[in-house]
Amino acid sequence: MTSTEPAVELSGLTKTFGAVTAVDGLSLRVEPGEVVAFLGPNGAGKTTTIDMLLGLARPDAGSVRILGGSPADAIACGRIAAVLQTGGLLKDLTVGETVRLTANLYRHSRPAEEVLERAGITDIADRVVGKCSGGQQQRLRFALALLPDPDLMVLDEPTTGMDVEGRREFWQALRRDARSGRTIIFATHYLDEADAYADRIVLVRQGRIVADGTTAEIKNLAAGRLVRATLPGADQAALAALPGVDAVEVRGDSVLVRTADSDMVARHLLTRTEARDVEITSRNLEDAFLALTTDQAGV
Amino acid sequence: MTTSLSATTDRVTPDRRPPALGGFSPAVLGIELRRVLRNRRTLAFTLIMPAAFFLIFGLPQRGQQLPNGYAVAAYIMVSLAVYAAMVATTSIGAAVATERALGWSRQLRLTPLRPIAYVATKVVTAMGLGLIAVCVEFVVGAASGVRLSADVWLLTGLGAWLGSLVFAAFGLFVGYLFPAENAMQFIGPILAVLAMFGGLFVPLEVLPEVLQHVARFTPVYGVGELARAPLTGDGVSLAALVNLVVWTVLFALGATRLFRRDTARV
């Protein structure tokens, strides 16, 4: 196993459910050691992609390579582990028993006490799973995922349903564990989680990747301002030619310009055209996210 | 500790081979069995209820004897041991339904555990509980004054226990058929009816003739005949053996088929 092999290589991944195309020709390469956020609204195809990545679902087209092999190989060897929303737990086992049972399914696993400690649930080891809160159960799933000491850890919306405190504790536990060598991919629809914990953000919408870059690069998508004005018959080409303009969209009598230099656009609109009702708004990461991940994309 | 160095050398490559026996291990069995023995509902239906049946229906017959001199109470005890074992093994097999409904089987698919090792664990756990169920019934019987020769104890016990393998397969079949958390609530009454037709609650001879004929084709008949044969001295009829084999094969095939469907990727 050479170190040059990508941790994950998805190519042309497609999955349809009836008339719905959940994942639409998605390709992605993740290098070892990357911490990647899979960011997108509900229904963007994140979970379906993760299911195919783990070999839980069969792609209609395209291929999945995990650490140079198939997902099944990676699971059989304990090289990949996952925290899934759908992964159930036995309510009548204790937390400690669940960990010990799972530990025995691997040829080699980290000691049960160690993963309980790292997931921050040592104090509830004797508690029956059915009496644990959602956040505690999620940390138990995380502890289970730590057992094989995997090269690749996949987490599907790991903090869904947790309160703010629970989310913070969960990410602290993950962060404590994050160390060189382990690749982490997590799906989330929380922008702040992607921003705070990922090196790289992959934005997904309708089963496709709409943006992929470092957190800073994705934030840059949101840099600049949006200039909106009422201008019947706007000359789209002339506006697009202005310095600093990224995009121009005409909607009926309105024109929307995304630009790094809003002063220049405003000056142009007010002095060279009949534009009125000029508005200038700044954009943040939230806007970029919405723009990239919703159908009614602004610009 | 130098931080940068330890960060990179921290990673000891673990043994990455798949587990031996597909993940089937005594440790997992131990946890499974402990879990089963903690379940009050399971204990009530597999250990306490059959024992209570014996005390209610078996003890009053204490004076009566079978044609060969053995006590009727012993006949009832062995029948109820078969019943206890079949409820025990069915409930463990059917627990697959609960684990599927809860999503635990999906969680297990993220581990190296081979599906066949999972089923093997269930079958062995089922047989473990079945053995305990037979033993409890026999202990209650012996304590109540049932006296048998050593070989009859052994042979009836083995018959009741090993015959319940049919129901481990039946439980798995049902468990893969209904992904319901409470599958056992549906199966309980069905088992009671089957036990009735298998002659476990009353001798088949007291049933109307038509029902006696029907009974020979129901799944408990073979096990019941097998388990009681050493006691009655009648020997095992060919019909009973065929019954036993056919139902075992049918349930095992059904369970295998559904199990394959379940583990196929979507």
From TrEMBL, chain A:
In which domain of life is the source organism classified? Bacteria
Cross-referenced Pfam families, in alphabetical order? ABC_tran
Q: How does it sit in the membrane?
A: Peripheral membrane protein
- What are the protein's UniProt keywords? Antibiotic resistance, ATP-binding, Nucleotide-binding, Transport
Under the heading PROSITE patterns, the entry gives: ABC_TRANSPORTER_1, ABC_TRANSPORTER_2
Cellular-component GO terms for this entry: plasma membrane
The ABC transporter domain, residue ranges: 8-231
For this UniProt entry, what is the primary localization, expressed as one broad class?
membrane
Q: What is this protein called?
A: ABC-2 type transport system ATP-binding protein
Q: Which organism does this record belong to?
A: Micromonospora avicenniae
UniProtKB/TrEMBL annotation, chain B:
Q: Name one GO cellular component term.
A: ATP-binding cassette (ABC) transporter complex
Gene Ontology biological process: response to antibiotic
Name of this protein: Transport permease protein
Q: Which GO terms describe its molecular function?
A: ABC-type transporter activity
Q: What region holds the ABC transmembrane type-2 domain?
A: 41-262
Q: Where are the transmembrane segments?
A: 42-60, 72-96, 116-140, 152-174, 186-204, 238-259
Its localization reads: Cell membrane; Membrane
List the InterPro entries: ABC2_TM, ABC2_TM_bact-type, ABC_2_transport, Nod_factor_ABC_transporter
Q: What is its main location?
A: membrane
A Pfam family of this chain: ABC2_membrane
Write down the species. Micromonospora avicenniae
> Which family does this protein fall into?
Belongs to the ABC-2 integral membrane protein family.
Q: Does the keyword Cell membrane apply?
A: yes
